[in-house]
Structures are given as C-alpha cells and as structure tokens.
Amino acid sequence: MDVGAKKVELEVECEEKTAWASGAGERLHIQDWERRSWRHLDTMQFETRINAMVPRVKYPDGHTETVKVPWAEVRSRWTELFECLAIEVLLAARSVSQACELLRIDWSSAQRIMEKAVERGLCRRSHEGITRVGLDEKSFGRGQDYISILSDLDASRVLEVTLGNDTESGRRLWQSIPQEQREQVEAAAMDMSAGFAAATRFEAPGAAIVYDKYHVSAKLNEALNAVRKKEHRQLSEQGDERLKGSRQLWLYDPVNLDDARQQSFAELAAENLKTSRAWMHKENFREFWAQQSRWQGEGYFKRWYGGAIRSRLLPIKKVAKSLKEHLDGLLAYFGHRITNAATEALNGRIAAIKTNARGFRSFEHYRTRILFFLGKLDMRTAVVQA
Question: Could you tell me the pTM of the whole model?
Fold first, then answer.
C-alpha cells in the first residue's frame, strides 16, 4: 500500500507445482514468464492494481500462448470487474472526458475499453426479430465524406455503420445481417438515392423499398425555398420586400407558429405570389400520406402531380417528376407504414456524440462510439454476465 500515492498493489502467484494442459489434455511446457498488471476496482478510494508473473506455455504444434488469468480477458490491462464499471460510467456520463476523469483513466484506455465492449456485444447480438430497417447517411468529415447507417426501426438501435453512401456501402450494411435473417426483413425505409435501393435489391430482394416521407418533405421544402429566393430577388429589384425574412415561415408547420406570426403568415400566403403557390403544392402533398390504401394513395398522387406539373414552377415540377419516377417506393408506404423517424432520432444522438468528441479523425473510432452508445449491445464481461 502506498498511502501517499493512494494506491494498493496486490501480488498474485501461482501455486507450487501448478501445471497447464491443452484442450486435449496434453501437459504444456512453460516457455517463459511475463509480468502483467491489471487495474482493478478501487479499494476505499485507493487505486488498486493486481500484478502477477504469468506463464507463457508452448503447445504441441510449436506456438506459444500466454495463460489466461481468471480475473481478466486475454491481453487486457483491466480486470473484468473494472471494465464493467467503466462501461457503466461511460454510458452514464455526459461525455467520454468526464468518464475518464471519474475513472482516472486516459482517453486511449477509454477508447480501448469501448472497442472491446462493442466487439463482445456484436458477437453476442441476436438478429432475430429484425423485420423493418432504415438506411440513412450522415456527414462524417469535411466536404463530401459520409457514413451510412443501418438501424432496426422497431428496437430503435443502430445495427451497423460503414464509410461512404453508395451502393457498395449499402451492401456492406446489409451483409452485417446474416442471410437467413435478411430473408425475414419485410421493409426498408430510405431516401430516394439510387445507391441504397440498388443495394437492397441485391442483398435483400424480398424487402420492400419504402421511400421515407421526411426525405420527400425535405425535397419539397428545398423546391419551395428555391422558388422563394428567386421571387424575392425579382421583387427586391422593384422595391418590394414582402418576402424578406420569411424563409422559416414557409418551411415551418403553421401550427407551430405563435398567433401573431400565424396571422402575418396567413396574410402573406393569401397574396398572389409564386411562393404561395409553391407552398400550397408542398402542403397539399401532406395528404398523400394520410390516404387509407395504396390505390387511394395512387389516385391522390395523380391529382397532385397534375397540378404540380401545370404550376409553371420549375423547382416544384422537377420534384414532382422525381417523385413520379419513385412512385412504387412511395406507394409501398401504405403496405408497411414505416418512416425513418427512429433513424432521424438516432442521427440526432449521433450528432451529439460527434459534438462531444469535437469531431473524429478516425472512422473506426466514430463507428465504435455509435455502436457503443446506440447499438443496445450486451457488452458485459463474462464474469459479470455469469
């Protein structure tokens, strides 16, 4: 015991005449000894370490291996009990740096503990019951760097994360699910990018492709905003500033505005503006999702599409044509009624992970954090699990 340093060290020795045997029962020769040290749970606020000389044994085929000790996993620097405590603290803390401070470990140690925990969790994870999934992309680094995420929509958990957002990325996501379980997946929600759809058709041909209504809404919002910006420039040149500062009014749901802003927006929307007409087409599409059946949805879309095409609003017409090209995926919604809402909620938490870490240089570190915090994995060590 070192009272000044507040440390306790325990020396563990093998009993005399201890022998080691292979799985086949053959006695193994001790090649040499290696001194090892493991961080253990604190003793009365004293940092506690277990030290031991561990034998390295030689197998009949000639390879050597360090003997596994009862209190820690192979090649670990922590006891299994300490790792379980560290996992609980990391999950509960506001940030990894705060957890490191509480556990009195450095960042690299915390990262290694999380990596081992995720590895254990992925080995134990059951894929049974996965029937509805979501595929989505999220920015990773600067520029056009993206990651792709596969989530279990019913369990609200991340199943896998891979680098990129193309067809190959989508295929890697699907391949993380065993083939027999992929055949049980009924539907997959995604945006209208060709990559995820192609990957799904190749790796899970039995899963229905359902285009996510929130991505459709985002495209309509982009078209509306394009109309607004162009019209605002044209009106400003004539000294008309009616659309100045109105961007959020057109994009928000009117029910989320306070009474005063609702009144001013209603007056603005009633004016004969191109932006008003674009907003009307965007709002009218909301009713598409409220239809009761596929054939009703198809009929409503035809009527909406006819009005959008005749609108003479180029951005709205462009989105309308894109939606018509993806109509099967839109109508698939009425058979499964799924969206990527759960995935978007996970994306918000992923953004918080990235912010707390102040960004990531390594994709593998990013993936580990996402699966550690959002994978709902059983990451306990064997001694605690038992």
Answer: 0.86
